[in-house]
Amino acid sequence: MSTASNGPQPVTQPPRPGPAGRLTLPTLSPSSRLYMGTEAGGSALLLAATVLALAWANSPWAGAYTSFWSTPASIGVGGAELALDLRHWVNDAAMALFFLVVGLEITQEVSTGELRDRRNVAAPALGALGGLAVPALVYLAFNSSGPAAAGWGVVMSTDTAFVLGILALFGPRCPDRLRLFLLTLAIVDDIGAISVMALFYSGDIHLPALGIAAVLIAALLGLRWVGVWRLWPYVLVGIALWLAVHESGVHGTLAGVAVGLLLPSRKPGAEQLERTRTYGRALRERPDAERAKLAGLAAAATVPANARLQQTLHQWTAYGVVPVFGLANAGVSLDAQTLREAVTSPVTVGVWVALVVGNAIGITAGTAVALRTGWGVLPGGVRWSHLMAGATLAGLGFTISLFITDLAFTDEHLKEQATIGILGGSVTAALLGVVLLRVLGDRFPLCTPESDGPPSLPPRPWRAPGS
Q: What gap in Å lies between CA 151 and CA 143, rounded to an integer?
């Protein structure tokens, strides 16, 4: 009797390397590890940071909130110095890591993920284009002229961390197919939002610094072309690129996107994989520091630089950078006078309506075009009712919306009104999306065992929140 299995063999996870310590700490439960490894963990921290910022900005210590984030800080060597206040260190420097992870993810999806197949990507891509264009038009209908008109880009982004965190709560109801659609949509949405930032929200251009940035981008392309696999050359060039882009007048976070898009993402060939056996055999024959180092380098070389950097940074951005960004930017006064002004403010109302109504209409209409023309298909098991619920939920814009608010407005009063619109519109979209998913999920299961669509996907813990 044969004991061979006909199905795919499970991949076992070996124990962590190194000898066991004398003191063993208790490990997290499987459910806790799963939770902290999904988008729900990062979005929960972002939500907590937002609530803390609102509480701080509306407390007796509101002045301390403003003064703290306005505290200047500088770094310098010799006569060269870069001075920013704490809020701009978060927005301009730390958020470059967030956009770096976004760029890494886009590159990986184009190379080995869902963006390789035209029919898989056509429906969410056209849905994303609708979700970019229609909310902007809705906002401009309320703010067609004057300084407020510059805020049309505020409503053009979905906060992927919050959306996928909410979908994670529907795990037993099998939301993976809808999650796949919204994840692909979010990637295209990120590309659109980044393009808008680069084209429409850059400052006065300083051509010499921009020329240096172009040379550094060429250097990244050269490193990729010659096959450099170690991370540190890309990191050093990336830091220099951020400084050049920051000085050029283009927002420094776009340097993070550029590095993410240019890092190698293709898997190495069989020859490189075979080398790990050679170095492993040499280490077994004579364990020493040099052979251990070579074996480690050989193992690292089998993983693309894109994946290695993404694995290093995604937890820092999800659990550190993005929550701190929310803490630094979500603190808006919600006193009675401010709320009365917000109710009649075309900026607040425009942002609110654009996020909720504009995204629901735009994403649904764009997807309908792809399906009616036959250019794309929905993942198996996702119906029109689920699509409309997901499109409503996609109106939850937060991280990049707050980010563009800081770029779009110089008037603090307009920033405050836009922030209130973002908070109100995001909460409304989240509540409506949850209600629709709950009601439609009860009547029409999101997917069934008989579905001929793609298989359910496991959680992707490396997804950065706010994209």
A: 8
